[in-house]
Structure formats: C-alpha cells, structure tokens
C-alpha cells in the first residue's frame, strides 16, 4: 500500500465502497457486497458517461479492504487520523455522525408532516442543505417497511424520519 493512500481523492476506501468508516466492523462478505454495488454503480459499461476512473478507485479500495493484513494497516491509519478528533468532539458535543464515521446512531430527525408529498409517485421529499434536486426522498412503501433513515441524493447527509403508522 502506498504510504499516503489513506485517503483517495478526498475519500477513504470505506467511502469509495459506500460504507461508513468503522474500521474492523465489516465482514469480508459485507465488504465484497459493497464492492459489487459500487462497481455496478460506476462501471462504464453500466453507466453512460462514466470514464472508469471511479472503477479504479473502487478496485483499489477492494484490494486493500479484502486483504486482512493490508486492511489492518489501513484501519490503523484511519483510526489515528479520525478517532482522536472524534473523541474530543464527543466530549464537547456528545454523540453524533461525522463524515461517514458513525460515532453513535444520531441523525437529524425530520417529521413526516414537514416533508413535501408527491401524489403521483407516492414519495415524500425534503430539501438538503447541499441544494441537490430532490434532496431526501422516501416512498410510502419504504416507510411501511421501517426504512426511515434516508440519505440525500446529492451528498452523504442523512435524516431520520419521524412518523407513525396508522392502521386502516
């Protein structure tokens, strides 16, 4: 592994595969599944306009995270880079989520009543601070299945939707 490969183009290997930065938490099967999802979402044969550069980053992330020795070395670098600052922030602010590193399951909560509803798509939406069209979106079906943690379509921000299912 290259000495300064802890972060690739501003992303960790965990970010590249769409996983939160939690060194040592994921099994090889979970990493492999994330690798396949990332490849499918970035491969030039599957995504028009893709250059393949992201695929190279995905393959590098897989190479490091799928090898136990390389992953342990990488995780140690991640821990030394992120955890001291997080421990300080935890003392000051309490538990929170920062840059994909889950310190605790704490997310901004948005009430379902504060979201816009599209009757055609049966989708609730809420704007994100990043300004991406659509921001946060969740369907009625998602909510009925208990999927109340929603990621923005334009950035990595997440919200937890507060709601109550009323039996008909």
Number of domains: 2
Q: Would you state the CATH class of the largest domain?
A: Mainly Alpha
Question: CATH fold name of the largest domain, please?
Answer: Helix Hairpins
Trace the largest sheet across and list its strands: 3-8-7
Globular, elongated, flat, extended or rod-shaped: what is the shape? globular
Distance between the termini: 57 Å
User: How large is the share of residues in beta strands?
Assistant: 15-25%
Q: Specify the biggest β-sheet.
A: 3 strands, mixed
Order of helices and strands: HHHHEEEEEEHEE
Radius of gyration: 18 Å
What proportion of the residues is helical, as a percent range? Answer: 25-40%
- Unreliable stretches: 1-9, 92-106
CATH superfamily of the largest domain: DnaJ domain
Instruction: Provide the residue-averaged pLDDT.
Output: 74
CATH architecture of the largest domain: Orthogonal Bundle
Give the strand tally: 8
Can you describe this structure?
By secondary structure, this protein is an alpha+beta fold. The protein folds into two domains: 13-94, Orthogonal Bundle (Helix Hairpins); 108-162, Microbial ribonuclease fold, CATH 3.10.660.10. The protein has helices spanning 13-16, 28-42, 53-65, 68-93, 140-144, and strands spanning 97-98, 101-102, 108-111, 116-118, 123-126, 136-139, 149-151, 158-162. Strands 3-8-7 form a three-stranded mixed sheet, with no helix packed on it. The protein is globular. The chain starts with 12 loop residues before the first helix and ends in a 6-residue tail after the last strand.
List the helices and strands and how they pair.
Layout: H1 13-16, H2 28-42, H3 53-65, H4 68-93, E1 97-98, E2 101-102, E3 108-111, E4 116-118, E5 123-126, E6 136-139, H5 140-144, E7 149-151, E8 158-162
Parallel strand pairs: 3-8
Antiparallel strand pairs: 1-2, 4-5, 5-6, 7-8
């Amino acid at each position: 592994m290259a000495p300064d490969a802890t972060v690739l183009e501003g992303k960790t290997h965990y970010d590249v595969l769409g996983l939160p930065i939690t060194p040592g938490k994921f099994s090889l099967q979970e990493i492999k599944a994330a690798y396949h999802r990332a490849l499918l979402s970035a491969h030039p044969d599957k995504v028009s306009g893709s250059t393949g550069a992201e695929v190279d980053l995905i393959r590098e992330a897989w190479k490091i995270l799928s090898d136990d020795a390389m992953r342990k070395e990488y995780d140690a670098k991640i821990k030394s880079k992120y955890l001291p600052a997080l421990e300080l922030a935890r003392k000051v602010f309490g538990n929170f989520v920062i840059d994909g590193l889950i310190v605790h399951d704490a997310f901004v909560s948005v009430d379902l009543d504060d979201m816009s509803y599209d009757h055609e798509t049966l989708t609730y939406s809420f704007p994100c601070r990043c300004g991406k069209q659509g921001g946060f979106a969740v369907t009625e079906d998602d909510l009925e299945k208990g999927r109340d943690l929603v990621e923005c379509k334009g950035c990595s921000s997440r919200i937890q939707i507060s709601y109550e299912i009323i039996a008909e």
